[in-house]
Specification:
Helix content: under 10%
Order of helices and strands: HEEEEHEEEEEEEEEEEE
Structural class: mainly beta
Number of strands: 16
Number of domains: 2
Distance between the termini: 46 Å
CATH architecture of the largest domain: Sandwich
Largest sheet: 5 strands, mixed
CATH topology of the largest domain: Immunoglobulin-like
Amino acid sequence: YWPSRSSYFGICDLAGLAKDRFYLYRSLWNKAKHTLHVLPHWTWPGREGQVTPVFVYTDYPSAELFVNGKSQGKQFKQPYSVAAGSSNAEKPQLENMELLRRYRLMWDNVKYEPGEIKVVAYKANGEKAEEKIICTAGKPAKLEAKADRNEIKADGNDLAFVTISLTDKKGNLIPDGSDELTFDVQGAGSFKAACNGDATSLESFTQPQMKLFSGKLVVIVESNGKKGDILLTVKDKKLGKIVKTKIIAIP
């Protein structure tokens, strides 16, 4: 529906950034790396005291959730087995719930309070495997940049994808960040495009400015055929902050 210009479905958004559901599939299919993804973010001003469920996508069989150091209990992956005595009317609802608990860990009754949530994942033998912490974000303070690679070919076609994030002073993502950014590329490359992943955004991909969506966007830098340094400068008009990223174009 207007003004959407792409589907809301899929495991990545229009900018190629992973959605939460991406990590559900990764936890099942990626056998080379472990997955521990926690959702939602933990910055909800005005929701203090309200129930805010926490989900975890992981390949580990169990995990324990802590909210500001207080345990919310340990959850385990549940095997799929609809209760034998259930009626035909009950089975679809039971099957849906069992499928949910088979593929994710769920804490349904968590009440939101600012601070941090920590998830500790455990191996099948009960040994601690790893942990993930998500903190409530403070005020927007800086931009962070992460390139998918630091070198590209100096062939006039190769691309680098740079993810820009708006964070607080401690590096916590601002999940509702929508500041407008501007982009400038100097040296052996040029600005190619930008995308924030918002399916309803009508901003041009090819203009050197764009608003953040959920605190992020992606800038694409292209080789101009010359070897040497490429310098991407991103500026936040509202904060007056900049972040610079260097990429090297090699023969």
